[in-house]
Amino acid sequence: MLDVKELAKCIIEKAVRPGDKAIDATVGKGYDTAFLAGLVGERGCVYGFDIQEEALCKAKEYLASVGLDREVILIQDGHQHMNKHVHEKVRAVMFNLGYLPGGNHEIKTKADTTITALEKSLDLLLPGGLITIASYTGHPGGEEEKNVLKQYVTNLSSSMYKCVAIEALNQGNSPPVLFVVEKKGTGK
To answer: Comparing C-alpha atoms, which of 23, 122, 120 is closest to residue 75?
Structure first.
């Protein structure tokens, strides 16, 4: 129940419809990318961002193995540059912060580029659209990134956005936090 990745998926699947556009801001091995591609279907599109060629190669293989590669455009660039590649409004954006599991732990998301990516996401988001951010804190810099995100999200305009944070209160080992931002209004 309290796995942030599964909670994020439950939240996103309520908003995304066939034909929508979505962004996986941190592709990793491609699991969230495939999830989004399954939701948008053949008429939709998912833009997936990762800075690591290794991650994109693994994601491409995974997407092909589950038959969802046609719905996806994989982009080797930092998520803070998403507006250079995406020129249409999107229904959802998913972030899984930290590092590539099984990859180089020195290559990880950072607070400054994540905030820039979040700002770009808000601009690209349709009214009624959602952003989920799974923030992992158990690595160097992870706690700082979570705190910066929490401050940023807390200060978003309440007339334009609804924001929540979901976190385990009685768990050790630096449990992740899930931030959810909904752009107010209704979008088609």
So the answer is: 23
